[in-house]
Design brief:
Two copies of one chain form a homodimer. Chain A is mainly alpha-helical and about 170 residues long. Chain A is built from seven helices and two strands, in the order H-H-H-H-H-E-E-H-H. Chains A and B meet through helix 1, helix 6 and helix 7 of A and helix 1, helix 6 and helix 7 of B.
């Protein structure tokens, strides 16, 4: 019997979607190369001047995933330098995040529904319980940045589709 | 004690995000009016010629939410006509979806982890268990279309931010 749990709703989902995102970036890299376009024109692209570029969408998606797993388990996530510029560097960031996520065992995260998590905001610390944090903050944020990365690449003509976003369910 | 469950991970999340989306569309409507821009220029906008316009992003987001709740509960969701064009019409579609979602009781959906759900695809029927359907298909799809709607409006200069997307967690 498979049962819904805090682990089931978090770590395997991040792993699945980040794997899809890694494959999407590989397609974008191949597209840029085939068309002879500087790949920084893609990785630095913003959908609006005060929106974040593709690089930051990938940084925040990976930060949200590793930060969520760590907070729910009550451990400290590794800090990355946030200096990725190329598709290869962004792919490496996703790959190391995947290795980190795969290190979590279900029993570290299951039962964390009411565990206190502390978020550091620009406006100060915010304290939430595990379940509302996962469902109302971490997951919506994670999907937001993965989808925005996809939208930036689609808007710039990379031939990807919904199947690349969803992967094999 | 709050416990993660199939209901907790689905219906309340759809209600929360669709409420945020409704407020975002109201801001977009006010923006179009203040600038004297035909609102169909926003609702018909696509981020790329073979992507779906804003109207369809809202249609699919609401369809995914009502279809997910119905499938997990083993009932049949209402079918909408898909003829919305204006912000007011799209807002009404979200409002009636919210009323429908609010009609579900947790006990209709809890325990549906292994319940068979049938998806009608262009390529035929796909059968999935409730939990993988919710976590790998319904939620990623739902967030995809809500985020794409947001991205279309941001790309067209509507002054909304991440706080509008997340709402009050």
């Amino acid at each position: 019997m498979t049962t819904m749990s805090m682990y089931q709703a978090s770590v395997p989902r991040f792993i699945h979607m980040l794997g899809n995102l890694h494959a999407i970036l590989s397609k974008a890299q191949a597209h840029a190369k085939a068309k002879g376009i500087d790949e920084l024109a893609f990785t630095g692209f913003r959908l609006y001047p005060d929106m974040l570029p593709l690089t930051n969408q990938i940084m925040i998606a990976t930060d949200t995933a590793k930060g969520c797993a760590a907070r729910l388990a009550g451990v400290t996530a590794p800090v990355y330098e946030d200096n990725e510029k190329t598709f290869a560097e962004l792919g490496e960031r996703i790959a190391k995040t995947l290795v980190y996520l795969q290190s979590f065992k279900p029993e570290q995260i299951d039962g964390s529904e009411e565990r206190e998590v502390v978020l550091k905001r620009r406006t100060g610390e915010e304290r939430l319980q595990g379940m509302p944090y996962l469902l109302n903050s971490a997951l919506p944020n994670f999907f937001f940045h993965v989808t925005t990365a996809y939208a930036i690449l689609r808007h710039n003509g990379v031939e990807i589709g919904k199947k690349d976003y969803l992967g094999n369910a």
